Amino acid sequence: MSEERVKIGIEGLDQMMGGGLIPGNICAIIGTYGTGKTTFALEFIWEGLKKGENVIYISLEEREDRILRYMNDKGWDTTPYRGRALSVLKLDPSDFNLAINSIKNELPALVSQLGAQRVVIDPVSLFEDLFDRDSDRRREMFRFVDTLRDQRCTIVLTSETDKDNPFASRHNLIEYLADTVILLRYVRPSDLTDVHLALEVVKMRLSAHSREIKPYEIQQGQVLVYTEANVF
Ligand SMILES: Nc1ncnc2c1ncn2[C@@H]1O[C@H](COP(=O)(O)OP(=O)(O)OP(=O)(O)O)[C@@H](O)[C@H]1O
Ligand SMILES: [Mg+2]
After folding, report:
1. pLDDT of residue 3
2. Which of 13, 35, 224 to mutate to test the pocket of ligand 1 (most atoms within 8 A of CB)?
3. How many domains does the chain fold into?
4. Is the CB of 161 under 6 A from ligand 1?
5. Is residue 65 part of a domain?
6. What is the CATH number of the domain that holds 131?
7. Does residue 36 have its Cβ closer than 6 Å to ligand 1?
8. Which domain holds residue 135?
9. Distance, CA 176 to ligand 1 centroid (Å)?
C-alpha cells in the first residue's frame, strides 16, 4: 500500500499515515511558532527532489536565499535542482493584490507549466490574513483549495495556530478544507521542568491513520519521530 503514497520523508510520521499522504491530497500542518512547520515542509520538498519530482516552495515569510540556505545547512545539496526541479518563490504578503493574484491565479498555471508533483505554501495563514472579512476569506479559500484540487500534485500548507487555541489554525478554516491535518505542538509537563514537542495526525480523509500523539525532536535540522514512545 505504501508505494501508492506520497511520503513526507519523515519516517515515523509517514508510518502513522499508512505510508504517507494520498497522492493529490491537500495536507495542512498546523503548529505554533517554532514547532517545525517549515522544517516538515522542507522535508516533504526534499523527499520529492530525491525521487526526481518537480517541486514548488512558496514562501510568504522568508526569502528564497534563506530557504535554500536552510536546506544546505541540513546537508542537502540543492544545486543540481535549482531553477529546474526546485522552484522557490517568495511572495510579499504586504502587497495584497499581487499576493492574491499570484497565488490564486498564477499558481495553478505554474504547477502545470513546471509539472510540479509537490507544492508547499509556507505559511498559508499569512495568505489568509490578507482578507479583512471572514466571509471573504472563507469564500476565497474554498475557491482556492478547489482550484488546487484540480492540479495533479500533492500539497502541503502550513499554518500558524489560533492565538487562543493551539489545536486550531489561525483562522479556523484550513483544517476543514484540507484532506489531511497534522498538528504540531508543545507539551509542557505540570512541573514545567521540560518542554517536549508532540505531533498527531488529526484527520486523514478516506484513510486509516494513527490517532496516537507521538513525541518528536528536531536535531541538526532533521525531524525524528519517536513512534515507540508515548507523550502521556
Ligand atoms: N538546522 C537546525 N538545527 C537544529 N535545530 C533546528 C534546525 N532547524 C530548525 N531547528 C529547530 O526547529 C525549530 C523549528 O523550526 P521551524 O523554522 O521549522 O519552525 P516553524 O514552525 O516553521 O516556525 P515559525 O512559525 O517561526 O515559522 C527551531 O526553533 C529550532 O529549535
Ligand atoms: Mg516557518
Report:
1. 53
2. 35
3. 1
4. no
5. yes
6. 3.40.50.300
7. yes
8. 2-225
9. 26
